[in-house]
Amino acid sequence: MTAALRMAGYLARHLLLDRQAEFWLGELNPLWSSSETRARVVAVVEETADTRTFVLRPNTGWRGHRAGQHTAVEVEIDGVRLRRCYSVSSAPADRLPAITVKRMRGGRVSGWIHENVRQGHVLSLGPVAGDFVLPDPPPAKLLMLSGGSGITPVMSMLRELAARGAVRDLVFMHHARSRADVIFGNALTELAGRHCGLRLLLCLGDSASGSGRFDEARLRELVPDYAERETFLCGPPALMERAGRTWERAGATGRLRRERFVPVALPSRPAAGAPTVRVCLTRSGRSFAAAPGTLLDQLERAGEHPAFGCRMGICQTCRCRKQAGAVENLLTGAVSSEPDQDIQLCISAPRSDVELCL
Fold first, then answer.
1. pLDDT, tens digit, for every residue of 142-151?
2. Distance CA 276, CA 71 (A)
3. 293, 329 in Cβ contact below 8 A?
4. Burial class, 198, CB count within 10 angstroms (exposed 0-12 / middle 13-18 / buried 19+)
5. In angstroms, rounded to a whole number, what is the distance separating the alpha carbons of residues 237 and 337?
6. Per DSSP, what are the bridge partners of residue 347?
7. Which residues, 6+ apart, have CB-to-CB distance to 89 below 8 Å?
8. Rg of the Cα trace of the chain?
């Protein structure tokens, strides 16, 4: 037996023993893992009729977070492991981290979490990620603008600033259908009562002062210096689009920071009369004619099951090596035409014959 074969056998036995040990230790303590971040749910807080906060006690794999960042939650549903990204809604200094999950209509993962996850349940978490974070030191004048479940990352920021005694001149403007739909409503009221530098503005659909939709005229009336403030924006696509146009007209886009947690409609823009292109999978040897839409959508229609998470270009779960061909990033418009480049399937569309390492 050659030295190379002996080494291969040793490594195979070593890896097998490691996996067996991890399996049995995981049976004794579900939080134990040498490779995964896991967390036990220690409390479930009903925020609204369709939103819950899950307070977590993670294992040693948890490395903390910066306010505004998110983590991927992995669950198994009908034998399929699925991942979705959720903001960490607690402050970084809090003893226990928390995520807040709104049950989305037709949402497979959010619905499963609401129906199945209770105190004592163990969740698998991905590493925290995201650059939607406060600079250090934080700006003197701030505006936090949110709608619906988009409040979760900016709430973490507000809690961090409050814990540091750094709420100096902060306007928190949140949009919701009704007062009963305001996530963290009691916590916001309590924080506003304790910090004179916090001005809380709730734009509610059931109030006499207007709808729960973003309104530029109302913003100018209530926050006349909005264009001078460093602004953190997160909410439904319609709110973010209208707010983005407002900041563009004011010439203040450099002060607007945005986070998306709702899939947007991605244009595929196939050229009229363009020849049919093919998607080739180098590992399986399969190929199929490309159609409008993202590569993730097309692969699923072709019967493939690539890993994915957020479906909006955030979590990187669907990252894949493109060995040849050109694809367009539908968020930025950038075209990748060099060989051996990593792309994200959920936001990429083929613009020529493409070879994927799948």
1. 999 999 999 9
2. 39
3. no
4. buried
5. 30
6. none
7. 53, 98, 99, 100, 152, 153, 155, 156, 184
8. 23
- What's the rounded Cα separation, in Å, for the pair 163 and 62? 21
**pTM of model > 0.85:** no
| Mean pLDDT score, 313-326 | 86
How far apart CA 332 and CA 354 sit, in angstroms, is 19
Assess contact for 22 and 29: CB atoms under 8 A. no
pLDDT one-digit tens code per residue, 250-303: 999 999 999 876 554 555 455 555 568 899 999 898 999 988 888 998 898 888
**CA separation for the pair 135, 116 (Å, rounded):** 37
Distance, in Å, from the CA atom of 297 to the CA atom of 54, rounded to the nearest integer, reads: 31
- Token digits for 125? 């978490």
Q: What mean pLDDT do residues 161-176 have?
A: 96
Asked if residues 222 and 201 have their Cβ atoms less than 8 Å apart, the reply is yes
The reported pLDDT for the residue numbered 305 is 85
- Every domain of the chain and the residues it spans: 20-125, 141-259, 278-356
What is the C-alpha to C-alpha distance for residues 85 and 81, in angstroms, rounded to an integer? 14
CATH level 2 (architecture), domain 20-125: Beta Barrel (2.40)
Cβ atoms of 314 and 130 closer than 8 Å: yes
Task: Name the nearest CA neighbour of 234 among 252, 254, 260.
Answer: 260
The DSSP H or E segment spanning 186 is helix 185-194
Residue in 149, 146, 171, 347 with CA at minimum distance from that of residue 257: 146
Q: Worst-scoring range by mean pLDDT, 25-34, 66-75, 169-178, 238-247?
A: 25-34
Q: Where are the alpha helices (DSSP H) in 85-182?
A: 108-116, 151-163
Q: What is the DSSP letter of 210?
A: B
- The pLDDT score that the predictor gives to residue 333 is 81
Q: Give the other-Cβ count within 10 Å of 293's Cβ.
A: 16
Structure tokens at 308: 């994915």
141-259 fold? Rossmann fold (3.40.50)
For 65-79, 145-159, 260-274, which range has the lowest pLDDT when averaged over its residues?
A: 260-274
Reply yes or no on domain 278-356 having CATH 3.10.20.30. yes
